[in-house]
Amino acid sequence: MVEETPWQQALRYANRANPYPFYEELRKTPVARQPDGTYVVSTYREIVALLHDPRVSSDPRKCPVPAVARAEGPGEPVAEPIREVLTEPNIITCDPPEHDRDRRMMMPHFAGPPHEPHLISDLEPDIRRIVDGLLDEMKGKTRIDAVDDFAYPLPVRVICKVLGVPLEDEPRFHHWIETALDALDFGPEAASEEIRRRQAGARQAVREFGQFAADLLDRYADQPGPGMLSALVNEDGPEGRMSKGVLASNALLLIFAGHETTVNLIAHSVLTLLRHPDALEKLRRRPELIVPGVEELLRFESSVQFWHTRSALEDIDIAGTTIPKGAPIFLAYGSANRDPERFTDPDALDLERRDNQHLGFSQGIHFCFGAPLARLEVQVAVGEFARRVENPRLVEDPPPYRHNQIFRGPRHVLVDIDGIRD
Amino acid sequence: MTLRATVAELVREFRASGRIVIVGASLAGLRAAETLRDEGFTGSLTIIGDEPYEPYDRPPLSKQVLKGWVPADHTKLPRMREVDADWRLGVAATGLDRATKQVRLANGELIPYDRLLIATGTRARQWPNPAEAALHGVHTIRSRDDAAQLQKELAEPPSRVLVIGAGFIGSEVASVCRELGIPVTVVERGAAPLVGALGGVIGEIAAQLQRDHGVDLRCGLGVSSLEGDPGGHVRRAHLSDGSAVDADVVVASLGSIRNVEWLEGSGLAAGFWGVGCDAGGRAFDINGVVTDSVYVAGDVARAPHVLYEYQFLAMEHWDNAVLGAETAAHNMVNLEPHYRPHLLLPGFWSGQFGVNIKSVGVPPFGDEIAFTQGSVAERRFAAAYGRRGRIVAAVTFDHGKWLEYYGKLIEQSGPFPPPPPGWDQPPDMKPMPAEFPDPRVPTAIPDVVLTGHAPSERTAEFRPRRH
Ligand SMILES: Cc1cc2nc3c(=O)[nH]c(=O)nc-3n(C[C@H](O)[C@H](O)[C@H](O)COP(=O)(O)OP(=O)(O)OC[C@H]3O[C@@H](n4cnc5c(N)ncnc54)[C@H](O)[C@@H]3O)c2cc1C
Q1: Which residue has a Cα nearest atom 29 of ligand 1?
Q2: B372, B375, B422: residue with CB nearest A56
Q3: What is the Cα–Cα distance from B418 to B407, expressed in whole angstroms?
Q4: What pLDDT is stored for residue B437 in this prediction?
Q5: What average pLDDT does the segment A234-254 reach?
Q6: Could you tell me which of A307, A312, A318 has the C-alpha nearest to residue A31?
Q7: How far is the C-alpha of B246 from the C-alpha of B234, rounded, in Å?
Q8: Closest CA to A409 of A327, A301, A319
Q9: Per-residue confidence at A74, pLDDT binned at 50, 70, 90?
């Protein structure tokens, strides 16, 4: 058997709870060619350089090789079901000038400043209410699941409200998202029977999800309602309106990204703090540390571990390697955030870390669209968890992990508690 | 004790009980003070500033403050940490005696130091005719009070504002006027706005931008005099082509003068272009010998830059003040080999007419320009500056996220024109002359000055030849 590369090892399910030792090995070759022709970039400096390099494309239509791990050995290359079904671009899968224009159109309805400086901060009371409610519901319990009872419900309710997606539909799209994610694998296990089987289901799920988004947009076209989607369907900006297909694709992206990443971030934050009781205690004593603290948690357990849709449009010389024109590029944010060349003592959790410009939200033009909202949600959720939950103890370490490698996160985090403070 | 141990002991002792004086209580002064404490300096720290205010931020003055979004007294600089200093605000330093290591204050006091940081920045160049400059309604803008007063008058509003000088600050003032719906005339001696900082090609785009926003822009002209009414309020300006402009607010944006007069007689290499220093912020004396106890940072400093053929650069940029101050402060409490260089890639930003303009590197060091990304017609683009086949600077209009990329190329002395982007290519990427004014004719408003020596100022002592 051929020896696996550090990247392949990092992607094995068995290493999901702790890929960091493999990342450390991986960083010895900052730009590492994989057997399938993918170039994995794992060091901070090189990733930042590529994020700002206009010879790097984010548009899969320009990448001749499918940017997914190919199964070694016999059989068809494993395609990515989401991309196969979702043919219209969204802001994460296109390049300027389309990218810039579409993002500009969406921005005023979401990100707040400078168009609507209060849009995000005005959500804070709602976020607090939801978090308080979730913690109140734990009263009387001695064991909770920090994922199902806490991390999951908050972002879902918030994103539904912001976008204007009926909360009743949540179970449906939750199912579609889970099904699609479980079929997405970039590691050596991608070729397994199991993953192949899941692919079919995933295609179906994405198709249904796409139909759901299209129907919702149609409904808003007939009768405008609250939230960003309705606004995008009905309002003409100075640059016109997005086509329905592009809009549906972006709607899908936002529903998906709006809750998937934040769930994992809250879950990981709780998990990390329970593993570092000193930090938790410090946060309880100095609640103002939540702001730098969340940045550190974002660095420590990056919500998006890597991103997989970039490719080189020219030969690019970097770190002693040439990434050839046409090659798929994977940017390993989770590894860059632990790069000792950039962060002193990167494996230590330091809620007061200075100069903490992590890649938890990426950088450059594709910098996370939802970052301001995610920050606020996590700050409120984790801050309140630290303040109100009495004597929390991790039941199982490591907890069980979800299958997906990009949106890496625990499936459940069981916590024993003594009670909930007011 | 070994020599090394003695040196370590010296550094330790100085950090514990040395005396440091900072002159200039603004951006560079404050950041230096914070860094000193961060570096473990626990000795006595005195900060002298001639303004009565605690350190405040200047960039908002010509933007948010003039628009009326932020009151002028709400621009206090955030404190990164406690500095525990003896603040001497509202009193100017008037002299420096390096022999006795003392700073003289306007009130006659003498403040002793072991190490001194000069961070006195620049001041606005006033309208040259003092009687006309004293008319009501005639402004310059550098301080909090300047901005507060001008904001008040803009809020009235005036029937027309005249801006003299279309550098960054003048253009920002014009932009604010248009946003407030005030008619504005801009008179610029050069061929276009921003021409000194960004050259004629970009200047032409900036000119079009101003005209599209309704600015009455007149280039290649000077203002010869200002005329007041009997009440002493400015009413009219006469231009060099014989025409006149009626305006009741005039903003003279004529560039800056370095605050070095108080250093007269100190024997430091201080003059028109600022105080010369090495890349570590250590001041030079008039003979070009580096001092051990006097440091410089911010707008008033000028230092050789490795990327620009070791020419002395004076940079009037916010991040130069911050990073220069941090470096100087670090070096003040360390000794060789622990000195650090301040080799910043210059960078600047400005907001005007709804466009975010950013530059990196030193554009006037280049003589060619090539558009590399985006669309000039839409005024969202990136352009690179080159000199002899190397990239030396870049500018972006609403394309700031790409600056980092150009910065890297400049650091590596990458090729000019730079490699083409993979997408969003402008129709024409051919290099063309960047059209900077002749460097021997100083423009009023440079943002980075390439400061060669001025032979007329030569005060060095030459050593007689001995046979
Ligand atoms: C209106 C305006 C807008 C700007 N916008 C931008 C921008 O958008 N982007 C950007 O990069 N930069 C901008 N700048 C430039 C930036 O503000 C300066 O680079 C920065 O303030 C320099 O800091 P400094 O501490 O070196 O000097 P200064 O801020 O000038 O501070 C020097 C201080 O020393 C005091 N002083 C002088 N002489 C003496 C003395 N003898 N004794 C005691 N105290 C003395 C002065 O009164 C002053 O308080 C702008 C500047 C202005 C005025």
Answers
A1: B26
A2: B422
A3: 12
A4: 86
A5: 88
A6: A318
A7: 9
A8: A301
A9: very low
User: Checking DSSP bridges between strand B184-188 and strand B161-164, what pairing results, if any?
Assistant: parallel
Flag whether residue A97 sits within 8 Å of chain B, measured between CB atoms.
yes
Residues 6 or more apart whose Cβ sits within 8 Å of residue A328: A37, A38, A39, A63, A65, A66, A67, A308, A310, A311
Residue B380 tokens read as 């969202």
pLDDT exceeds 80 at position A131? yes
Whether chain A has a CB inside 8 Å of the CB on B345: the answer is no
- From the list B375, B408, B422, which residue is nearest A313 (CB)? B422
pLDDT at A69: 43
CA–CA separation, A40 vs B359, rounded Å? Answer: 31
Tell me A394's DSSP state: E
Ligand 1 within 6 A of B167 CB?
A: no
A200 falls in which pLDDT band (50, 70, 90)?
Answer: confident
- Residue A75's pLDDT is what? 44
Question: Does any ligand 1 atom lie closer than 6 A to the CB of residue B56?
Answer: no
Pick from B221, B218, B257, B250: nearest CA to B236: B250
Which chain A residues are within 8 Å of B374, Cβ to Cβ?
Answer: 96-97
Nearest-CA distance from B35 to chain A in Å? 13
Please tell me the predicted confidence (pLDDT) of residue B95.
Answer: 98
What torsion do the CA atoms of B358, B364, B366, B369 make, to the nearest 10 degrees? 50
Q: How far apart are CA B70 and CA B68, in angstroms?
A: 6
CB atoms B421 and A365 under 8 Å: no
B420 CB neighbours in chain A (<8 A) are: 55, 314
- pLDDT grade, residue A56 (50/70/90)? very high
Q: How far is the CA of B269 from the centre of ligand 1 (A)?
A: 20
Q: What's residue A395's pLDDT? A: 97
**HSE (CB half, 13 Å, CA atoms) of B295?**
35
Write the DSSP string, A189-204: GGGSHHHHHHHHHHHH
Count of pairs with CB atoms under 8 A, one residue in A, one in B: 50
B192: phi then psi, degrees, rounded to nearest 5: -165, 165
Q: Are strands B223-228 and B234-239 parallel, antiparallel or unpaired?
A: antiparallel
Q: Which of A48, A51, A52 to mutate to test the interface with B (most CBs of B within 10 A)?
A: A52
* Partner residue opposite A57 with nearest CB, options B405, B420, B423: B423
Query: Cβ(B49) to ligand 1 under 6 A?
Result: yes
Q: What is the pLDDT of residues B145-181, one digit of tens each?
A: 999 999 999 999 999 999 999 999 999 999 999 999 9
Among A60-64, A89-93, B447-451, where is mean pLDDT lowest? B447-451
User: ipTM value of the model?
Assistant: 0.83
**Given this model, what pLDDT does residue A109 score?**
81
- How big is chain A, counted in residues? 422
Give the closest-approach CA distance of B388 to chain A in angstroms. 22
Q: Which residues of chain B, if any, have pLDDT below 70?
A: 439-464, 466-467
Contact list, A313 vs chain B (CB under 8 Å): 422-423
Per-residue model confidence as pLDDT tens digits over B194-233: 999 999 999 999 999 999 999 999 999 999 999 999 999 9
CA angle A58, A61, A63 (to 5 degrees): 70
pLDDT of residue B350: 94
- For the record, the structure tokens of B119 come out as 């961070």
B143 and chain A in contact, CB less than 8 A = no
Query: DSSP per residue over B335-379, as a string?
Result: -TTS--------EEEEEETTEEEEEEE-GGG-SEEEEEEEETTTT
pLDDT band at A68 (very low <50, low <70, confident <90, very high): very low
Nearest 5°: phi and psi at B164? -105, 115
- Would the CB of B175 count as within 6 Å of ligand 1? no
pLDDT at A84: 64
In the three-class reduction of DSSP (H, G, I as helix; E, B as strand; rest coil), residue A384 is classed as helix
